[in-house]
């Protein structure tokens, strides 16, 4: 019987409030399906730690985490203490890059009981998977400022795409589409405006698509693609995008389904050379921290994705069953309550965690 | 009495169908308000011209256009003949850059008779102005490919921001906000992820905002900003953004108001050192070309923006009145018909132009 080792990093703000509920539900599911989990909590990767030490993480963070199978991650950021680009590049973005978590997988679905802000949802349910490249592209740290502090100041920042980095995320998207009913991939691009990297990206996509004759695909410029998320979201199945475009689409998709506070994500290294990281899409929400009113569902759903990933490709395994049980419990709670304030209810963070754990 | 010289470039596809209606309405308004316009039509800046000559424009395009006060522009692109990045960089993007049209102004508003895809529009009308930087930023032509054609291929593309380029668009946005009721500016950013150029952009915005104590402002990361366009679009007043983010927001904003086919834009050089360019946001729509069913309202509305710009800062002048008369005629046509197919009617492109011209 395998023991899965999980690093727990709650981070800042509501990360610290939703994490206990995520752990509660994941533990309940593990117990029910006979999965052995070993949790280790770390106080760093937080702005509190930064305030004490001047760094987001200890120097040996990699050694401390590298024996782990997964990182269960809350939310990082407390702009009053640390500017976001320092707190994020010092933690989350370091994990993604140094642990080569090159797939960021983010579902966007409509649920019974969750009202979409789009009218006419008679158009059919929304059920898409956004596959975001997670290690390169527009999020580089290459660039600088010239003539700094003068009227002639110029700032440059490179976007950097590798064939290896692009092909592997495109491949993941086409493989994922094979497992889905509609078997369609939409490739986000902006090759009419961003005239070097994006036409090249289009060519990589076309070459990859050629290897999947059973999958239909199209490419859409990010501007009109965002518009179509609003106009015809039910049409999308798998959407694959660069780091920046994937970031945008994976907030916009859940906004269109009404689930922006519920969206989970998996930052994965599919080869398991490094631990993968599971986190809610939402941030640390300083404005509501401390009231125990944050919705823990994104954290809990991310925990379900973590269990599914731990179980590997075994679609009949206990980990898959644990995942499915958590998702079913989330669905039933969304449909019938209790609800937190963001969903029009008055339940606390803790009450939601307890309710979902009980259903599991 | 000034004569305004206008270059007419219809371009490709439905550009050729909507342009005559734009001209019809602009001419009618000019006549009514005693404005003298001189139109010169050019057959280039089109993929047809490219098919004949191998270039999008003649070598002396700048000389041919430089005496003009404005360019009235249809739509460019016919991907079956010319890849988009070649047709656009060989025409529209050249104008924007070489004529230093550094402001791209794009309104997004709800109208009576136009259904927003967002439910609950009881939340109040949407009325925002998107101010897009139009000459630099993410749309650079600086970069290249290394190890081309090999598995080690790497592509780089620079984003380039200058203090001059950023400050002038930020200033325009804050000045525009002064003229509006809500006096609020939202600055699009992504400084938590794009860690060199965007924190710098935030600092430019903060410095500019400091000079406008009467204007309230905030900055929002592009991912959550896109989500809020869907969730609370009525909250936005002036939104200022880099080239790429402005491109995305100015498709998404009209999508949220239901006016994606109606959205106009002004590509302006406010100093009038070069001609400014007025064009619909929509493209050449190869799929519906040739049927005379395209909606000409974006073209017509862009014509109204052109007249307003030509009249300068004289808010009581004839040009402003002509602008207002066209917008009023558009509103009344949207409310009571006739409508083209995209709005649920069966009127032709021509019929809409004739109807709006008659009202003017
Ligand atoms: C056609 C394309 C290059 C252009 C842009 O991205 O600027 C268009 O989308 C626009 O918004 O005017
Ligand atoms: C916090 C930020 C750096 C991050 C990103 O842009 O990747 C977040 O928005 C996300 O989507 O995970």
From TrEMBL, chains A, B:
SMART domains: Iso_dh (SM01329). InterPro entries: ICDH/IPMDH, IsoCit/isopropylmalate_DH_CS, IsoPropMal-DH-like_dom, TTC_DH. GO terms for molecular function: D-malate dehydrogenase (decarboxylating) (NAD+) activity; lyase activity; magnesium ion binding; NAD binding. Its cofactor is Mn(2+); Mg(2+). SUPFAM superfamilies: Isocitrate/Isopropylmalate dehydrogenase-like. It catalyses: (R)-malate + NAD(+) = pyruvate + CO2 + NADH. The keyword NAD applies. Its EC number is 1.1.1.83. Residues 5-356 form the Isopropylmalate dehydrogenase-like domain. The keyword Hydrolase does not apply. It is an enzyme of class 1 (oxidoreductase). Pfam families: Iso_dh. Keywords: Lyase, Manganese, Metal-binding, NAD, Oxidoreductase. Belongs to the isocitrate and isopropylmalate dehydrogenases family. This is D-malate dehydrogenase (decarboxylating). It comes from Glaciimonas immobilis.
């Amino acid at each position: 019987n395998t023991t899965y080792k999980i690093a727990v990093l709650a981070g800042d703000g509501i990360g610290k409030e939703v994490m206990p509920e995520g752990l509660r539900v994941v533990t309940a599911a593990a117990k029910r399906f006979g999965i052995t989990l070993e949790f280790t909590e770390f106080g760093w990767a937080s702005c509190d730690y930064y305030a004490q030490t001047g760094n987001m993480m200890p120097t040996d963070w990699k050694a401390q985490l590298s024996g782990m199978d997964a990182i269960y991650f809350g939310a990082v950021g407390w702009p009053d203490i640390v500017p976001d680009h320092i707190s994020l590049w010092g933690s989350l973005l370091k994990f993604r890059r140094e642990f080569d978590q090159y797939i960021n997988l983010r579902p966007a679905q409509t649920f019974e009981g969750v009202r979409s802000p789009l009218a006419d949802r008679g158009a059919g349910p929304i059920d898409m998977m956004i596959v975001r490249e997670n290690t390169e592209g527009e999020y580089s740290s290459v660039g600088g400022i010239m003539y700094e502090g003068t009227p002639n100041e110029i700032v440059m920042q490179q976007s950097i795409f590798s064939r290896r980095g692009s092909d592997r995320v495109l491949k993941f998207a086409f493989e994922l589409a094979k497992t889905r009913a509609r078997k369609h991939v939409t490739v986000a691009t902006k090759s009419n405006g961003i005239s070097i990297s994006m036409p090249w990206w289009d060519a990589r996509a076309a070459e990859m698509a050629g290897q999947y004759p059973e999958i239909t695909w199209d490419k859409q410029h990010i501007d009109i693609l965002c518009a179509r998320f609003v106009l015809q979201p039910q049409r999308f199945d798998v959407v694959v995008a660069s780091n920046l475009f994937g970031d945008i689409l994976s907030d916009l998709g859940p906004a269109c389904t009404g689930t922006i506070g519920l969206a989970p994500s998996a930052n994965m290294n599919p080869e398991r050379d490094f631990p993968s990281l599971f986190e809610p899409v939402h941030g640390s929400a300083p404005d509501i921290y401390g009231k125990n009113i944050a919705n823990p569902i994104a954290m809990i759903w991310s925990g379900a994705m973590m269990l599914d990933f731990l179980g590997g490709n075994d679609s009949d395994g206990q980990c898959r069953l644990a995942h499915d049980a958590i998702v079913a419990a989330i669905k039933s709670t969304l449909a019938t309550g209790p609800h937190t304030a963001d969903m029009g209810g008055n339940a606390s963070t803790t009450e939601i965690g307890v309710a979902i754990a009980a259903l599991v």
